[in-house]
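SpoIID/LytB domain-containing protein (Proteinivorax hydrogeniformans), 532 aa
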Amino acid sequence: MKRMFNTKLLVTLVVVSICSSFFYTGPGIQFAEASHDEIRVGLFFGNNALRTVNLDSNNSNTLKANYNNAEHPLYSGVGEFEFSLTNVNKTSTVFSDSDISKVREIYNQLSNSNVPVFYGFNGLWHVLVPSHRANEVTDINPSLRASSFSVASQVVKVENKGRTIAYFEQIDNNTVLRLHSDDEFISVNDGSRYRGFMEVLKENDGFKVINQLDMELYLRGVVPYEMSPSWPIEALAAQTVAARTYAVRNWNKYKSRGFNVCTTVNSQVYRGYNSRHETSRVVEAIEKTEGEIITFNGNPIDAVYHSHSGGHTENSENVWGGTLTYLRGVKDPYSVRSGSMLDDWAYETVIEGVDEHGRAGFKDELVSRGHLDSSFDIADIEVVTFDSGRVDYLLLTSEQGEEVKIRSGQIFGAFHNNTSPGGSQRLWSRVFDVKMDSNTFIQSTLGIKQVSGDAFTVLGEAETSVVDGKEVYVLTENGKTSLPTRPHNITLDGSGWGHGVGMSQWGARQMAVEGYSYREILEYYYRQIDVR
């Protein structure tokens, strides 16, 4: 019986592993920097930058400006803080200084009056008021003088529950706005909640949003999205150490953008806080491995992982071309007895034309991708594998005897996303065999032999006959049955999911079920490593 599984979760797992940085180029440097307790996660940036940012919590929030590497509280209040782009109209400055503490002093003085007051920044700090109320400030502080506030056409406007707090012409890596909360969580536009604080920077015509928080709390938003939170604690602990190691090793991946990791499969999936995913098992797994990472020769390893090995993990060089001592292929009986539907799957389609699921046939798909010429008539396919059983390439032979080599990566790229409706059929990995309906098997006392082609020779005691043609039949007790001489249908019969390098998550689950500890799991899938 095939076990149901979470397709969305497993898609995430595979791509994360594929996209991880593979070559470690800075011995010692990243590890040292990663010893910091907090990690910075880019939530929205680049093409996903937000036009308007709304931050809120269930308690009081404080807007702070991180200016010249020092944090300055500007305003505290409950309710939503909105960041938007707007024009500044009819606003005057009544005090300016490069010293933000002096500006805050004047701001606090005026904020106790009935004159609306807000901050301004255009390279210099300002106290602003509406122009038509500017003459009132001298009654409060005779030293104040009103003048125009000169800024670009569009500035960053910060509001709290509709009340204007500040206008910023510049908001960049040198002048950053942060929102801290007295609550444990801060929600962002879509309602997602995050621990730590939020940092907002102007980026193009929108805003970049960065979440900074404790590394161990960050893992609570990663581990349950990389592995089912209902799995055994030792498997979750192994996943936690691998995820922490990934973050440490890739500490500088987005350094130029001002953060360490992103939220997608380009780093590790991070979704912040969700009570349904942050189970007691997840929390226990993180706490029991607090601060632990996997190292080789004292440096954090590239702790890649995948969903299901298909029975044997793979050497790193057979997937990415670089040999790493700790990423060696090992027999993996645990994955294939895990009970996952990934233990055994099949991708069935036609050679040419469109199959019953509306997908292009095997040959047509390869032709459309430029891997095969349309005049090539497939007569036979030889599967060439690595020692692990993972396909290296397919050698296609035509009816005219021509041969074409198709790399497993080309096969995977052509058919992995070419699913049947509902995803019941998919090419999940490069661990597969090829079967075609033109393959004929002859059984004798010497065993089973596969033959194929459009000519068969029948040997009798007295004579030899050659059956040569496009229509060949066998006569059985059920009557005449057509024996195809050219392949019409093909089945890719396989196991596993993912690149196969490093830890198999289904294998880790099965090892945990069988009583292995997270350290034993890690030491099985990563060779010659230390966990510390």
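Residues 233-249 form the longest helix (17 residues). The chain is about 20% helix and 30% strand. ok done for today
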